[in-house]
C-alpha cells in the first residue's frame, strides 16, 4: 500500500469495458442480494419464532447488498479506473490520503523510498490470468484428488503445481521437496496431534507403518 | 490491588514448563510469519486454530497471544531490509528504517524496532492489567441493546471511518454479515440459505472464511501479479543491533512518544496499528525538522524507527485489553482471537473475567513473559530472522497453500469445506483486485451473529419498540461517538475533494 493516488491515463483505443471490470463485483453483489432476498422470502419459519424472527436480519442484509451493488455499479460506470487494485498485496482498506495526512507524508521523500522498490517503474498492467489459472486448477485438482489419492500424493501435487506456476525453475528437485513437505505434515499431524488425513491409495503402506 | 494477586497467580500458571514451551513456539511462529512478507498473525492464528483443538485452551491461548505480538516484532524486518513492508503496520517504520539500512546501520534499525516493539507492548500490557477490571465493571452494565450498539460501532468504524471508500467498506461488511447468516438460526431453528445441504446446517466455519480470504486470496493474488512485479534488492543486516548510550538517549523519548500514540488506538476500532504508527512517524518528522536534524530523511534517524514500532505494539497491547474485557475486536488479528475464544466455547467480554478467570490471568501474565521471550529471540538474532527472506517465493506460497488446505480439512474432514474455502479464496482475490477491504468481512462474520442475537433479544424485550436501542446512557454515548466519527469522515472527504478540485483546475493538462 503506497500512499500515492496515481490517476493513470486511459488509452484512447480502450474498449468500454476498460477500467470497468469491477462491474463483475457489482453484479456478484447484486446477485448475492437477490439470492438472499429470495432465500429470506421463501424461508420456512418454524411456528412460534418470536417477534423479530429469523427473517428480520436477513431482510436488512439482502436489501443492503442490493442497494450497495447498484451504487457500486453506478460509481464504476461514472468513474472507470484504469487499474484498480494493482497496488500492493496488503490493501487492508486504509485510506492512503488519511494516512498521508497523519504521517505528514509528502510524495517527494517518503513515497519514492517505498514506491520505487515495489516496482512502479516496471510494467505492471493487467492480471496474469495464465499463472492464476494454473494455481486455481491446482487447487481444484487437489480437492478432487484428496480422497482417492490420499493426503501425501494430493498434497505433493498441489505443492509442486503452485511452486511451478509461481516460477520455480527446478521441476525435478521440486518433486522431492513436495513429497517431503506433504509427508512431513502427515507424520507431524497424524502422529503428533492425532488428525486423520486421508491415506488414499497409500493406505496399504500405512497399515504396516502405524 | 486485586489485580496483582490475580496476576501473580497467572504467572504461576504461565511459567510452568509446558506453557513456556507453547509461549516459545508461539514466539518463533509469530516472528516467522511477521518476517515473511504476505503473511500476518491473523492468518497464522486461523491456520493454527483447527490443529490446536486437541490442546488445553490455556496452552492454546498462550501460544496465540505470543503469535499475536510476535507478528509485530517481525514485520519491520522486510520493510527495513527490502524496502517492502510485509504488513501495513510496518509501513511507517520502513521510511526511516530502510534509510538507516542503506546507510549501513541495518542491524541497528532492526535492534531499535525490536526494542520499540518490546517497550510499547510492555507499557500497554501493564495498563491493560490495571484497567481491565474497571472496563469489566463498566461492561457489567451492558445489556442486549448496549452489546448491539458496541457491535454496530465496530462495524461502522471498521467499514467507513478508515476505509478508502465507504461504499467498498460497507460492501465488505455486508458480505461478511451474509456469510455469517448461513446455517440454522439458533433462536428459531429455521434453516437459512443452506440450499438444503446438511453440511451447511452448522454454518460456514470462521476458519474457512479467514483462511480463504487471507491465505488463498493472497496466494491467488500473488499468482496474478508475481510475473509482473520487479525484483527487490536486499540490504544485508551486518553490525551490532545494540544501541550505544547516545543512540539510546535519542531513541528512548521516541519510544515513549510512540507508545502514547499507540495506547489509545488499541481500544478504538479503526483497523489496527496503521493510524497510530503514521501519527507517531509524522510527529517524529516534525520534531526532527524543528531541531534541524539532517539525519531524518537523509541517513535515516533512529527516532523514525523507534516511535512507530513502539506505537504499533502499544496498540496491540491495549487492543488485547479491549478484546478480553469488552469483546470488541479492533483489528483483523484481534477478530481472529475472538474467533479462537468462540471455538473453545467462550465469549470474550465482561463475563470472561468472571467465568474464565483461570484462563484470562495466565493469558495476561503470558503476555509479559511472551514479550520478554520475543525480545530475547529478536534483538540479538534479527539478522538470523532476516535469512527467512531468502526462502524463494514460490516455495513459500506453495507451503502456505498446503497448510491452508490442511487447516481447513482438519476442521471436520469435510470435502465441502475445501470447496467453500476455494470459493471464498476467489472472493478474497476479487476483493484484493478491486481494493475492497478484507478486515470488515472478518469483523462482520465474527460479530454478525452476536449483533443479530442481541438486536432480536432487545427488540423482543421491548416488543418491537426501536426506542430501546437508544434507551440508556451507554448506547447514547456509543451512537454519539459513531455520529462524531462519521461526521469527521465526511468533513475530511469533502475537504479532500475540494483540494483535488482546486488541483484539477490548477493543472492545465487533461
Per DSSP, the total helix count of chain B is 20
Oligomer: heterodimer
Strand content of chain A: under 5%
The helix content of chain B, as a percent range, equals over 70%
Which bin fits the share of residues in helices of chain A?
55-70%
Secondary structure tally: strands of chain A: 0
The topology string of helices and strands of chain B comes to: HHHHHHHHEEHHHHHHHHHHHH
Count of beta strands of chain B: 2
* End-to-end distance of chain A: 49 Å
Sequence of strands across the biggest β-sheet of chain B: 1-2
| Main beta sheet strand tally, sense and closure of chain B | 2 strands, antiparallel
Category by helix and strand content of chain A: mainly alpha
Q: Structural class of the helices, strands and pairings of chain B?
A: mainly alpha
Q: Which whole number gives the mean pLDDT of chain B?
A: 85
Share in β-strands of chain B: under 5%
Radius of gyration of chain B using CA atoms only: 23 Å
Largest β sheet strand count, sense and barrel closure of chain A? none
Uncertain parts of chain B? none
Shape of chain A: extended
Q: Provide the residue-averaged pLDDT of chain A.
A: 75
Task: Describe the 3D structure.
The complex is a heterodimer of chains A (210) and B (510). With 210 residues, chain A is mainly α. Chain A has two domains: 23-117, no CATH class; 129-209, no CATH class. Chain A is 58% helix and 0% strand. With 510 residues, chain B is mainly α. Chain B is 73% helix and 1% strand. Chain B contains 20 helices and two strands. Chain B has helices at residues 2-14, 17-35, 41-51, 57-82, 91-102, 106-139, 144-161, 166-181, 206-225, 245-265, 274-290, 302-326, 332-343, 350-355, 357-378, 382-386, 393-412, 415-433, 439-461, 473-506; strands spanning 183-184, 191-192. Chain B has a two-stranded antiparallel ribbon. In chain B, helix 1 packs across helix 15 (357-378), helix 3 runs antiparallel to helix 4 and helix 7 (144-161) runs parallel beside helix 20. Classes of the chains: A mainly alpha (210), B mainly alpha (510).
Amino acid at each position: 500500500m503506497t500512499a500515492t493516488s496515481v490517476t493513470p491515463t486511459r488509452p484512447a483505443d480502450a474498449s468500454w469495458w476498460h477500467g470497468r471490470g469491477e462491474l463483475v463485483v457489482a453484479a456478484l453483489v447484486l446477485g448475492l442480494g437477490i439470492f438472499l432476498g429470495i432465500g429470506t422470502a421463501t424461508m420456512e419459519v418454524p411456528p412460534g419464532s418470536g417477534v423479530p424472527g429469523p427473517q428480520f436480519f436477513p431482510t436488512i442484509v439482502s436489501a443492503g447488498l442490493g442497494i450497495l451493488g447498484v451504487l457500486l455499479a453506478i460509481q464504476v460506470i461514472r468513474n472507470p479506473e484504469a487499474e484498480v487494485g494493482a497496488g500492493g498485496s496488503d490493501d487492508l482498506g486504509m485510506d492512503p490520503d488519511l494516512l498521508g495526512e497523519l504521517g505528514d507524508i509528502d510524495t517527494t521523500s517518503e513515497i519514492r523510498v517505498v514506491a520505487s522498490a515495489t516496482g512502479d517503474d516496471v510494467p505492471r498492467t493487467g492480471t496474469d490470468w495464465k499463472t492464476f489459472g494454473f494455481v486455481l486448477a491446482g487447487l481444484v485438482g487437489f480437492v478432487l484428488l484428496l480422497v482417492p489419492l490420499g493426503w501425501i500424493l494430493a498434497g505433493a501435487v498441489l505443492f509442486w503445481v503452485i511452486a511451478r506456476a509461481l516460477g520455480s525453475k527446478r521441476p525435478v528437485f521440486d518433486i522431492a521437496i513436495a513429497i517431503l513437505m506433504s509427508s512431513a505434515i502427515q507424520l507431524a499431524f497424524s502422529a503428533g496431534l492425532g488428525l486423520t488425513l486421508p491415506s488414499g491409495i497409500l493406505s496399504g503402506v500405512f497399515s504396516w507403518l502405524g | 490491588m486485586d489485580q496483582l494477586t490475580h496476576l501473580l497467580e497467572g504467572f504461576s500458571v504461565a511459567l510452568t514448563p509446558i506453557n513456556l514451551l507453547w509461549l516459545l513456539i508461539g514466539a518463533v511462529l509469530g516472528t516467522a510469519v511477521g518476517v515473511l512478507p504476505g503473511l500476518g498473525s491473523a492468518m497464522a492464528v486461523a491456520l493454527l486454530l483447527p490443529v490446536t483443538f486437541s490442546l488445553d485452551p490455556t496452552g492454546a491461548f498462550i501460544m496465540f497471544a505470543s503469535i499475536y505480538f510476535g507478528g509485530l516484532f517481525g514485520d519491520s524486518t522486510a520493510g527495513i531490509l527490502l524496502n517492502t513492508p510485509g504488513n501495513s503496520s510496518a509501513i511507517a517504520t520502513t521510511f526511516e528504517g530502510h534509510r538507516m539500512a542503506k546507510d549501513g546501520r541495518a542491524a541497528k534499525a532492526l535492534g531499535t524496532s525490536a526494542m520499540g516493539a518490546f517497550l510499547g507492548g510492555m507499557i500497554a500490557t501493564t495498563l491493560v492489567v490495571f484497567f481491565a477490571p474497571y472496563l469489566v465493571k463498566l461492561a457489567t452494565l451492558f445489556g442486549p441493546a448496549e452489546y448491539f450498539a458496541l457491535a454496530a460501532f465496530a462495524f461502522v468504524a471498521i467499514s467507513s471511518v478508515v476505509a478508502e471508500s465507504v461504499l467498498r467498506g460497507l460492501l465488505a461488511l455486508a458480505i461478511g454479515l451474509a456469510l455469517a447468516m448461513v446455517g440454522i438460526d439458533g433462536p428459531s431453528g429455521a434453516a437459512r440459505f443452506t440450499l438444503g445441504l446438511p453440511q451447511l446446517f452448522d454454518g460456514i466455519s470462521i476458519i474457512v472464511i479467514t483462511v480463504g480470504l487471507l491465505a488463498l486470496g493472497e496466494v491467488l493474488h500473488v499468482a496474478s501479479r508475481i510475473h509482473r512485479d520487479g525484483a527487490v534488492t536486499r540490504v544485508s543486516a551486518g553490525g551490532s543491533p545494540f544501541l550505544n548510550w547516545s543512540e539510546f538517549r535519542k531513541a528512548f523519548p521516541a519510544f515513549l512518544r510512540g507508545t502514547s500514540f499507540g495506547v489509545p488506538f488499541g481500544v478504538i476500532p479503526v483497523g489496527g496499528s496503521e493510524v497510530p504508527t503514521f501519527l507517531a512517524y509524522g510527529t517524529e518528522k516534525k520534531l526532527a525538522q524543528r531541531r534541524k536534524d539532517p539525519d531524518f530523511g537523509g541517513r535515516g534517524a533512529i527516532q523514525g524507527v523507534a516511535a512507530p514500532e513502539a506505537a504499533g505494539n502499544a496498540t496491540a497491547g491495549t487492543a488485547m485489553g479491549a478484546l478480553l474485557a469488552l469483546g470488541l475486536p479492533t483489528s483483523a488479528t484481534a477478530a481472529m482471537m475472538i474467533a479462537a475464544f468462540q471455538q473453545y466455547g467462550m465469549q470474550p467480554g465482561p463475563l470472561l473475567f468472571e467465568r474464565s478467570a483461570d484462563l484470562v490471568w495466565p493469558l495476561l501474565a503470558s503476555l509479559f513473559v511472551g514479550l520478554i521471550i520475543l525480545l530475547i529471540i529478536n534483538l540479538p538474532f534479527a539478522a538470523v530472522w532476516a535469512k527467512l527472506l531468502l526462502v524463494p517465493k514460490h516455495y513459500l506460497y506453495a507451503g502456505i497453500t498446503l497448510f491452508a488446505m490442511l487447516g481447513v480439512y482438519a476442521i471436520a474432514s469435510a470435502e465441502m469445506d475445501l470447496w467453500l474455502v476455494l470459493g471464498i479464496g476467489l472472493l478474497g482475490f476479487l476483493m484484493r483486485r478491486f481494493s475492497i477491504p478484507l478486515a470488515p468481512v472478518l469483523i462482520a462474520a465474527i460479530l454478525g451473529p452476536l449483533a443479530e442475537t442481541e438486536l432480536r433479544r432487545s427488540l423482543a424485550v421491548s416488543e418491537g419498540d426501536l426506542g430501546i436501542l437508544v434507551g440508556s446512557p451507554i448506547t447514547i454515548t456509543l451512537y454519539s461517538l459513531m455520529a462524531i466519527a462519521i461526521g469527521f469522515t465526511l468533513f475530511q472527504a469533502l475537504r479532500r475533494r475540494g483540494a483535488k478540485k482546486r488541483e484539477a483546475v490548477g493543472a492545465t493538462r487533461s
